[in-house]
Amino acid sequence: MNDTMTEIELQTRAFKRAHDLLADRVSDLNEEIEKLKRRRLPGIRSAVADAAEQRDKLSALIEAHPELFEKPKTVVIDGVRVGFSKAKGKIVIDDPARTIMLIKRRHPELAETCIRVTESPNKKALANVPIATIKALGCKVEETGDEVVIRTVDSDVDKLVGALLAEAADWEQAA
To answer: Which residues fall within 8 angstroms of residue 141, CB to CB, at 6 or more apart?
Structure first.
């Protein structure tokens, strides 16, 4: 038994070294990404501003000449569709409770389709209820046995490493 625990300790240390190496490499990658972002961001901001300016000029030109888009209402130029289309409109509900009351009163036939009613069990709240009560409510609790725990104290990098390890497990299962 003691030899087995020694073996587990040695393997835990090997895992920790591999985990730390992975965390260091992910951290290095994140640092490089941030440096690249800082280097490229001024150019991206400039390109965004230029694209917005060109879009605004194009929009003003189209708005000034609606006669060019009567039939057809749109045309495609260099892969960009320009022209006019019917706006979809946007429904604004200032007082949802009043709107629901008015639907029920004036158009009850619309209530079923125009009023959303959502009821569902709250699993987080049920987790605090005794198991006997959960069973009496027609629910069951699964996977409550012991499970192997291998967990590092999570930092942001550790969370990413954990996600990468989980993804690697998925890759292995797929293969």
So the answer is: 131, 134, 135
Measured over the CA atoms of residue 150, residue 153, residue 157 and residue 159, the dihedral's sign is positive
The pTM is what?
Answer: 0.50
Which pLDDT score, from 0 to 100, does residue 72 have?
Answer: 93
Q: Are 116 and 96 in contact (CB under 8 A)?
A: no
Q: Taking 80 as the threshold, does the pLDDT of residue 79 lie above it?
A: yes
Residues paired with 81 in a beta bridge: 76
**Burial label, 74 (beta-carbon count in 10 A; 0-12, 13-18, 19+):** exposed
**The pLDDT value given to residue 168:** 73
CA distance 167 to 173: 10
Cα 159 to the center of its chain, rounded Å: 16
